[in-house]
Amino acid sequence: MHHATSIPTVLGLYVLCFVYFSLGLVFSTVVTFFTATMWVVLLMQRVRYGDGTRCKKVNLKVHYSFSEKEQQKLDIVVNKVKELFATRPDKVHGFDHAERVAANAAFIATHQGKDVLMPTLAGWLHDIGRAIEEHPEDFPQFDHTKSHHELSYELLQEWFRTDDGFAMFIDEEKLELLYDVRNHWNDEADKYASAYILRDADKIDGLGEIGLQRHHEHTKGNLKKAHMGLRLRYEWLCHFKTDTAKRLNEERDLIAPFEAERTRLLKDNITSVEL
Question: What is the residue-averaged pLDDT of the chain?
Answer without folding.
Answer: 87
